[in-house]
Model the fold of this input.
Amino acid sequence: MIAAASQPAGLLTPNGTFVAELIAFILMILILGKYAYPRIIAAATDREKKIEAGLRAAQESEERLARVQEQVEKTLEEARAQAREILNRSHGEATTEAKEVIAKARSDAEALIERARTEIAGERDRAIQDLRNEVASLVVASTQRLLGDTLDAKAQRRLIDQALTKVADNPSPKAEQN
Done:
């Protein structure tokens, strides 16, 4: 047998090592198949399921995000439309209020002007009345000096009326300038 051991062994030549290796390989496959492979396959299956669940969740999140973005855009557009409407309404109200304020100011100014005209006319009438009274007093005083005599009330009245008629017919140049 020594002679057989010295012969070179080929790849397919069965010998003791080959049988031991074959038995070890089969045992290893059986042990791995019974204990290790089911755990590896279960871990890979779990990982695959988690990845699929993560992909589904990501896809659902993207879809929700797209819906939320659409809702946000819709809400923003509604808000913009409401803002434009509010601005237009405010502008219209401001214009209306400005017109009302201007109309009220005009009517107040016209009322003030009319009141001033009334007051001026009243003052003018009082001034004319005061002037007539003063002219009457001066006419009576000058008549008394000229005549040196007191006139009765009827004669005084007649003279005063004549003087006032002359003053009214011939206004002074100063009165015409004013």
